[in-house]
Amino acid sequence: MAHFSGEDEAMLQAMLRQLFQSVKEKITGAPSLECAEEILLHLEETDENFHNYEFVKYLRQYICNTLGSMIEEEMEKWTADQNQGEEFGYDTVVQHVTKRTQESKEYKEMIHSLKNIMMIVVESMINKFEEDEIRSQERQKKTQKEKSSSYCTDNCSDSDSSFNQSYKFCQGKLQLILDQLDPGQPKEVRYEALQTLCSAPPSDVLNCENWTTLCEKLTVYLSDPDPVFSDRILKFYAQTFTLSPLHMTKEIYTSLAKYLELYFLSRENNIPTLSTGIDISNPNVTHLLKKIRLLNEYQKEAPSFWIRHPEKYMEEIVESTLSLLSVKHDQSHLVSQKILDPIYFLALVDTKAVWFKKWMHAYYSRTTVLRLLEKKYKSLITTAVQQCVQYFELCETMKGDEVLEHSKSCGIKQKTFYYSGQELQYIYFIHSLSLLGRLLIYTQGRKLFPIKLKTRKDSVSLTDLLVLFTQLIYRSPACPKMTSPGHLEDYSPASMATEVLCILCDQKECAIECLYNNTVIEALLQPIHNLMKGTKAAPNCSETALIHIAHILARIASVEEGLTLLLYGENMNSSEEKSPTGAHLIAQFSKKLLDEDISIFSGSEMFPVVKGAFTSVCRQIYGTCEGLQVLIPYSLHESIAKAWKKTSLLSERIPTPVEGSDSISLVSQESQNIMAWEENLLDDLLNFAATPKGLLLLQRTGAINECVTFMFNRYAKKLQISRHKKFGYGVLVTQVASTAAGAIALQNSGFINALITELWANLECGRDDVRVTHPRSTPVDPIDQSCQKDIIDRLIILNSEAKIRSLFNYEQSHIFGLRLLSVVCCDLDTLLLLEAQYQVSEMLLNAQEENTLETSESHREFIIDSLSVERNHVLVRINLIGGPMERILPPRLLEKGDEPYPWPMFSSYPLPNCYLSDCVTRSTDLKQDNDLGKLLLRFKMSDKQTAWIENCRRQFCKIMKAKPDIISGSALVELLEKFVLHLSESPSECYFPSVEYTATDANVKNENLSSVQQLGIKMTVRYGKFLSLLKDGAENDLTMVLKHCERFLKQQQASTKSPLLCLQRNYTSHDWFVSSLFIIMLGDKDKTFRFLQQFSRLLTSAFLWLPRLHISRYLPADTIESGIHPVYFCSTHYIEMLLKAEVPLVFSAFHMSGFAPSQICMQWITQCFWNYLDWIEICHYIATCVFLGPDYQVYICIAIFKHLQQDILQHTQTQDLQVFLKEEALHGFRVSDYFEYMEILEQNYRPVLLRDMRNIRVQST
């Protein structure tokens, strides 16, 4: 400010003139002042020259000079934090730096200085404009006089036209109006003066020197007994509010507020009392309400523009309002004779306190409101709390009919001319409830509590107030049902309290501080407690109240902190046995409702809605892994399925309405209700599929086909998956697709076909809706009958000219097909299947051979293009097995320079050596190591009890932490053999019974293995030879091992009548665990099979060796028929559960991506991490699970996700998380690096995991 010179002022004026001249057409074309302001506010979005304006450049430079160094310092600080291990995204850094800048002293000083500068410039421009206008008018008058003296025609405009009268207000004119408004003047003169005032531009009036005097007089004249006169003053006020800038309207508003404050404080005015009520047909009341309404309309509009003006204007408006609303009359007389305060009238015109909601929305005004409430006007909050407490006490003490009469205003929208004292009290209660609900959202608002009331000994705390709101839902009377279309809003106490509580639930910080505690939850659950005991829920608890409670509980359960509270209570680690937590009570009550085991509401038309509301709460709980664990004992899936089947039968029995019959509408309404309830139940069942174990329960109900069809119908209609679900159907579809029955259901529902059709349209048809010709998505050549008519045939196996010519975008579509093939083939079982059925390797090699140019008679060169580069990558990927350090995959992108693609292409095997890594760790004999020697020595001890087993495990952990590389080769073989032998001889360690097996090689020699298994054997031997662990002849030995395993496991299989093809034959995929073990045993088939026989008795075998439990008689019949393996419904279920607790960002990333952690973990585990980990790490994975237990399978997966956290978050942003996890090896991950972390996981979770893992088997009775 000190350096702001006259030259600076002139320069800024020139800049502003340039800006206004450029946007002149836009502003003059605006229909109103507000629209013109909006145009200026959004100028950057609409004006391409915005950043070229000199005024914009000036502002940018001003900010840079003032805050530039501070912003740079903040950026450097965050960069330093990032280097120290704190990883932040770019958006996060910008948000934090922006916040710190806006909170800084420098920023506030800059804004203050800039405002003052601009006020000087703008006022100067306005004054200059007025001077120019006056001079222009004088010139016009002079010219007009000259013209009229020289000639005059009938058609010329009179110099005293109405336009010229109202165009500019002079000081003398305003003084004349002031004189004419005097009460001593005749009525007609006063009316005319007001009419002239109303027709003049408000800005001209307000800029006159006499404006202050006029304002004072208008305020006095508001009390004029003549209604027409006072109404015209209000009309002038309304015009001023609409057309004038804030610094002018502020004066009008504050004068009106001050007038009303004095009006209510004056004992001369006949203000109604509570006993008389309000008769709005009374002229005095009508005029008072008009003034209050005008004030309220401005209150609701002001926040939209006051941020663009000096803060003092907003502060004056806020303070004048709070001062008015804090007016209290003498309370010494009886309550019934109490004179109504201003707040009653404001509540009448703005029942839900919309004005307060708008004032609290922006930080700019909220800070001022809260500061003034705390410093000067806390009584306003105190009376609001008092009003809520009084109404609740009224509900507690009065009879139901009396309270209902008191609350008749829940239908306030009815046309009425009289409000009784009781109705006014109720309207004020609703206003107070809305105001307090909005206040509690904000931290500073909550700091105003506790509140001390004169009528109570103890102060009202936040918890007390929330409990009161909660109890209002079921202790206040229900309002009569509104049938008139005019009743659009529900002002019943229960609805209003529910609305407030739901808003608080949506504010995380507020909900944690206010709602998420046992006291409030117990208050919510009190009616359910009572109903479960067989007593009445509460004096006024209706079906509607229970529905409200369920909606609040559903919102609480949809948030992590709220769900934890419902599941475990506040003291989740406490060992004290208390009453069941909220989740248990909700589940018990919901089950009773579904089973119709509760008589209080049976037969009510609202009963299905109550059932649906509470089942929806359960859905929020069992839709999570930890929630499902708590609710499993209640078998809700069975109760819901039973209710669905019953409802489905009812829907089939609905009679067809006869035309002309009076029952048509009744039948139609009944059928709609039944169909809605049926869909609701299907949705409840579908949400079991959100978790692996929940999907097992869903398949046991037999309703999976109907649920998936229901999901597809909603997907096709683009309907939201659920009220509380933030992300779409991705996770559900992924979970369902992970099982055989689920995949069939997706196929039958049309889901897969719809996805392929949509994909085809995006690839081949583009976005041109006008295009008439579309390529068909079915094969074009009749000889291709052997190919499935699907995406593989059209986009991947393009082995004919007809197929190529049929594509509009051949290269784009084929590239996509090859990328899809690359991702799909990361699952080794899928790769073997495609190789067995389609010979994809041969097809790709042939395509590469055809993509060459003959450079000489004996030499051909490959053409380097996007297709040949992608084919080369896929060929290396599908033919070379190895972890991140064992194979080299060629890039998909070309390099700059003379040699854009230095990687050799090939059209026949073997692969070029450059793709084979030189970093493969070769096994060495390290038995001489001291620690390993101690471990091997323990196996020679004769006393091998439980303590011995624990000692061996401790020694194994010690080696893994210090010298993990020595656990490999022959040392690993000896460790595994001896440890498993001793475990299998210990009855306490054996989980499965011993099975006698006497078959010899000759007995199994003639048995056939599937083509998939045969290809898997070749792949295994190729990998083993690459590792230098297998020799020639290994292929035959592994074949014999697999044949013996099939015979051995077949002895333990049960017969099943499942329609699933995978359950009608032997294990259809390749046995990757046996293949891994065969390599570990250095190709010794006898050692391998002997180990497997012993290992098969241990619980760990159920989770490492997947074929072990294929159609196994040790599993329950319904588990066998589901076709779901325990690794899926147990291991991956707990992986998701622990991931949410241990690495929550990764868990959230999966859900945002629509991809389930269980699916990728199932792939890793099924193929023993082949292609994802190096061989030494695969050995450590198997050894760790064998030595330490099957739960370590879960801990290792959690450790991997922890290791990949940053990559996962990054690929979630780039929307290719699934591709990344499937295609990329686990670079840098070593099992031994995370041993200490996994030991912590064991301490926290082992009891729960092992208990559930042991429960997979049929229990003996």
UniProtKB/TrEMBL annotation:
The lineage of its organism: Eukaryota, Metazoa, Chordata, Craniata, Vertebrata. Interacts with CDK20, which promotes CDK20 stability and function. Interacts with FAM149B1; may play a role in cilium assembly. It comes from the Eukaryota. It comes from Capra hircus (Goat). Its main location: other. The keyword Phosphoprotein does not apply. Required for high-level Shh responses in the developing neural tube. Together with CDK20, controls the structure of the primary cilium by coordinating assembly of the ciliary membrane and axoneme, allowing GLI2 to be properly activated in response to Shh signaling. Signal peptide: none annotated. Residues 12-138 form the BROMI N-terminal domain. This is Protein broad-minded. Residues 824-1256 form the BROMI C-terminal Rab TBC-like domain. One of its GO terms (cellular component) is cytoplasm. GO terms for biological process: non-motile cilium assembly.
